[in-house]
Specification:
heterodimer; A: alpha+beta; MutS, DNA mismatch repair protein, domain I; 5 domains; 6-stranded antiparallel beta barrel; 27% strand; B: 21% strand
Chain lengths: 535, 272
């Protein structure tokens, strides 16, 4: 089989249809970001460490012979005054955000490749700024205004080529400013890529094999027939071959710039009274909802952050079964301030800042009420929300039944509007749960009782699970004694027997008193309890 | 006094009705000897009674909400009416039996100030938990909360506070009439339409140290202002398959043996 070259016209037409892409690359971005965050001078040798090894080193540190992968102690021995910080990937992204925003002001439609590198379509900008070179230099100037970094730009037909064009530029040491941007003319991608080492393809397995086969540059790889490469290396190989030939199959996806919908309310001086805070929040809550409506969104979950004067932050996410209105937002702020109780728990001083962040948003179209209203549900919701604003968030509860052995653990109550969490499945077998019918009254806190035998002695259960004497009557601490006409039990319930600390062994009885009322009585280490009533 | 005069005046608007009390009519019906004519008379009596009840009701177009037939036939009007208050005498299962049919029919229910309401039992009785809201601790704002809930929820269960002022009672009653909600009060209430209470109850399936609670037969008694004497019926609340139905004399209940806890059987054998 002979290597048939890819027909040239196809390549030309492909490259003609491809968009021109500008890639901005800020070398050593982790170092730049950390340096900016720590406000360190540019020329101080500085490294970021991860797991005791050097993750990234500044240019001045590299000049001292410190490189990536070196042990921190070794690096410190090479330059004693070395400053080291732990590497924080989140900081990288956070620090790059203003750079992206800055570029978006110049050219819309930025695609973030990774922190420190982003791409943008340049065709329109090239016309506006009078050429791709001019556009590239404008971008570099803009980035240098935002962050002190040695920004480079590459422009080419496709993403892969543009990335390597930006990497082939020379740095800030060079006299010429224009050397920091490299333009690969349309259709010349293949020529530009040809001399690059095969190792720039980021697939070690295939690259190692190619090197063993005697292919050391992208140009040599590109000369192989596409069909042969696909046959031998599969889809991944075919994709790498396309990259090496200057055709990047990766689609360009511009990011949608996030809307700034957060609302921050500062109080000066800090406030410590609930009504003052809610009054201050009221008008901005209107702005918050208005901003969302303008973006054609409704918010179904918000996060409220309360900053106290002494620097503590109390935050919590609030859900809404439908969507938040301004008054709902004010209510949530009030509940949160009341709940955090300012002085007693959590926040020890007045609140200096309230921040309202939309956590989950939805298109407004999905939440529009129909022309004839949407039935009963909104009415229910308004009524319950009103009660909730009277009694607090936890005042209105929605019940669900979950799996469990005791009656109390089988019922779960969730505040109206919240999602129920951590439910145990009812379907699982729960040995020890009560037989039907179930008691209608389940005391929210069980009552202590005394159970007596005929001779007036207290009833207990021995080690083998037998009652010592048949129960004949029982009495609560504050009421008359009730005679028992029938009883059944004891049914053992041995919970968490594998843990000595939380082990709870109890015996359950059903008993019917002389009025015909039946009770669920429980005997445990703490004595007798009435847990529920069958009334 | 004026109420009674009013009733009599309205009675004469129907040409067939003679101004005799429902009690007298039922007495006549009972006195009639032969079986077919007695049933015809009984039908006639019920028809007339319902007409009287219709005239006596405070709202003209009061409608019934779904009620279990065994309890509904005891209630004035043949079931729970919209816009009225009923007193339930301290039986949670009776309450659930009243709550289940409207809930199953799609109504929203709310339980205010009853923290010990057994959720799982309610679900077993047929109350839809998706449409049930609990407000266990309304505190001092009982009236405001109940009024707000009555606005939006069809059937509301609540326990009245120790002392409700007359004005509060009147305001709540007018709100109920306006919103057509039914209020089930746990305990007595001055303006209740009827008082549903539990009489003698007998548990089946449990013995002296063996078995377990399986079924209960109870006497449900309804005392109302419109009926001269209390009406009562014997019901299974619940029967061994966890349903509510009228009690008939010739049936006996057997506890489901498979559901017996094994240890209990063992205990019996050891002690025997």
């Amino acid at each position: 089989m002979t290597g048939v070259p890819v027909p040239a016209p196809v390549q030309a037409s492909l490259s003609a249809s491809l968009p021109r892409v500008l890639v901005l690359w800020c070398p050593d971005w982790p170092v730049v970001a950390a340096r900016q965050h720590e406000k360190l001078p540019v020329d101080v040798p500085f490294v970021l460490t991860e797991k005791g090894l050097v993750f990234a080193a500044s240019a001045s540190a590299r000049a001292e012979g410190i490189s990536r992968g070196l042990r921190l102690r070794e690096a410190q021995s090479r330059f004693p005054g070395l400053i080291d910080r732990a590497y924080d990937p989140a900081l990288d992204s956070r620090a790059f955000e203003p750079v992206i925003a800055g570029i978006e002001e110049l050219i819309p439609g930025v695609q973030l490749l990774r922190p420190g590198m982003c791409a943008v379509r340049v065709r329109g900008a090239a016309q506006y700024y009078g050429g791709e070179k001019a556009a590239a230099l404008t971008v570099i100037d803009r980035v240098n205004e935002i962050v002190a970094s040695d920004a480079r730009v590459g422009v080419a037909d496709a993403l892969f080529t543009a990335v390597h064009a930006s990497r082939s530029t020379v740095g800030v040491d060079q006299v010429s400013r224009s050397a920091r941007a490299r333009i690969i003319p349309a259709g010349e991608s293949a020529q530009f890529l040809a001399p690059l080492a095969i190792s720039v393809l980021d697939e070690p397995q295939i690259v190692t094999l190619l090197i063993k086969l005697g292919i050391s540059t992208l140009g040599e790889f590109a000369q192989l027939a596409h069909a042969d490469v696909r046959t031998r290396f599969g889809d991944l190989g075919a994709r790498l071959h396309a990259l090496a030939s200057g055709r990047d199959p990766q689609a360009f996806i511009a990011r949608t710039p996030p809307l700034d919908l957060d609302v921050v309310i500062d109080f000066e001086p800090a406030l410590d009274r609930v009504d003052q805070i809610t009054f201050g929040v009221r008008s901005r809550a209107d702005d918050f909802i208005e901003g969302l409506v303008r973006a054609q969104l409704v918010v179904t979950a918000i996060r409220i952050e309360l900053d106290s004067e002494s620097g503590e932050i109390a935050e919590r996410v609030w859900l809404h079964p439908r969507s938040f209105a301004a008054t709902d937002v004010v209510d949530r702020v009030r509940w949160q301030v009341q709940g955090s109780n300012l002085i007693e728990a959590g926040l020890s001083s007045g609140i200096s800042r309230v921040r309202i962040v939309p956590e989950t948003v939805d298109a407004i179209g999905n939440h529009e009420t129909g022309l004839w209203g949407s039935g009963l549900e909104p009415r229910i919701h308004h009524g319950l929300a009103r009660v909730q604003s009277m009694l607090g968030h936890g005042g209105v509860l929605v019940p669900t039944v979950q799996g469990g052995r005791t009656l109390q653990s089988r019922q779960q109550l969730t505040a109206w509007g919240d999602r129920s969490t951590g439910q145990r499945s009812v379907q699982r077998p729960w040995p020890g749960s009560l037989p039907a019918p179930l008691p209608g009254t389940v005391f929210s806190s069980r009552h202590a009782v005394h159970v007596f035998a005929h001779d007036g002695s207290s009833v207990s259960v021995d080690e083998r699970g037998h009652v010592v004497a048949a129960p004949a009557s029982f009495a609560t601490s504050d009421s008359r004694s009730r005679t028992l006409t029938a009883w059944a039990g004891p049914w053992p319930l041995d919970g968490r027997w594998w843990e000595a600390q939380s082990r709870g062994r109890s015996w359950r009885f059903q008993a019917v008193d002389d009025t015909g009322c039946a009770w669920l009585l429980v005997l445990d280490d703490g004595g007798w309890w009435a847990e529920a009533r069958y009334d | 006094m004026s109420h009674a005069i009013d009733t009599i005046e309205h009675m004469f608007e129907y040409e067939q009705v003679s101004p005799v009390s429902a009690h007298a009519l039922s007495a006549i019906a009972e006195a009639l000897p032969s079986a077919p004519s007695r049933s015809a008379a009984a039908d006639r009596v019920t028809e007339l009674q319902s007409r009287i009840a219709q005239m006596q009701s405070r709202t003209l177009d009061s409608q019934l909400i779904p009620t279990h037939p065994a309890i509904g036939k005891l209630l004035p009007g043949g079931g729970l009416q919209q816009g009225t208050v009923y007193s339930i005498d301290r039986s949670m299962m009776l309450l659930m039996a009243l709550l289940a049919p409207p809930s199953a029919a799609g109504s929203w229910c709310a339980v205010i100030g009853v923290p010990e309401f057994g959720i799982e039992a309610a679900e077993r009785f047929g109350v839809d938990l998706e449409r049930l809201v609990l407000i266990p601790h309304p505190g001092d704002q009982w009236l405001a909360v109940t009024a707000a809930i009555v606005d939006v929820v069809d059937v509301v269960v609540t326990r009245p506070p120790r002392r409700a002022s007359d004005s509060a009672v009147a305001r709540l009653a007018s709100r109920l009439r306006q919103r057509k909600s039914t209020l089930l009060m746990m305990g007595s209430w001055p303006q209740s339409e009827a008082m549903v209470s539990l009489g003698e109850s007998l548990w089946h399936g449990i013995g002296d140290g063996h078995g377990h609670l399986a079924a209960r037969e109870v006497t449900v008694t309804v005392t109302s202002k419109s009926a001269a004497r209390p009406r009562s019926a014997r019901l299974w609340l619940p029967d061994s398959s966890e349903t509510i139905r009228a009690y008939s004399d010739h049936e006996t209940v057997k506890p489901p043996l498979a559901a017996l806890p094994e240890l209990t059987v063992l205990t019996q054998r050891v002690s025997a």
